[in-house]
Amino acid sequence: MIIEKLLTKFKQENGGVIGSSVIEKGGFMVAMDAPPEIKIERSSIIAAEVFNRLVRNVESTKVGAIDYIMIEGKKGDMLVVDVGNVYLFVRTRKNSTIAKIMEDAKEIGKKIEALL
Questions:
Q1: 22, 30 contact by CB (below 8 A)
Q2: Is the pTM value of this prediction over 0.70?
Q3: DSSP secondary structure code for residue 74 in this structure
């Protein structure tokens, strides 16, 4: 699948990326590239649900649309980027260069959106 190849390339070009996935906003998994031990499928679906809830609750604060959320953990970080009709979920290693990963995630997001 073309999207999985994009995710693989994204991981190869960003040493801090452990895995990533593309999830429909309703929680359906579109594609993923991740080792099985990080259980990215389950984490992605939960992250999509959290993002959806945040969007609904933040609308009342008038800050505008949410582009992404980041969850910082002791062993690594998770990014969820809004890519139009889907979310791009990224699991990173601790102390990764998040700014570079985020920039590349937004670019890959544009490519994914064009494919869907």
A1: yes
A2: yes
A3: S
**If one looks up domain 2-115 in CATH, what number appears?**
3.30.450.30
- Per residue in 19-34, pLDDT tens? 999 998 888 889 999 8
Cα angle at 36 between 81 and 17, to 5 degrees?
Answer: 40
Q: Structural domain boundaries of the chain?
A: 2-115
Read off φ and ψ for residue 35, nearest 5 degrees: -70, 145
End-to-end CA distance of the chain: 12
- In the numeric block, the tokens 């992250």 are attached to 47
d(CA 108, CA 16): 16
Reported confidence tier of residue 56, pLDDT bands at 50, 70, 90: confident
Label residue 75 exposed, middle or buried (CB < 10 Å: 0-12, 13-18, 19+).
exposed
Taking the C-alpha atoms of residue 76 and residue 92, their distance in angstroms, rounded to an integer, is 5
Residue 95: which residues within 8 A CB-CB, separation 6 or more? 16
Q: Which among 62, 61, 102 is positioned nearest to 82, based on CA atoms?
A: 102
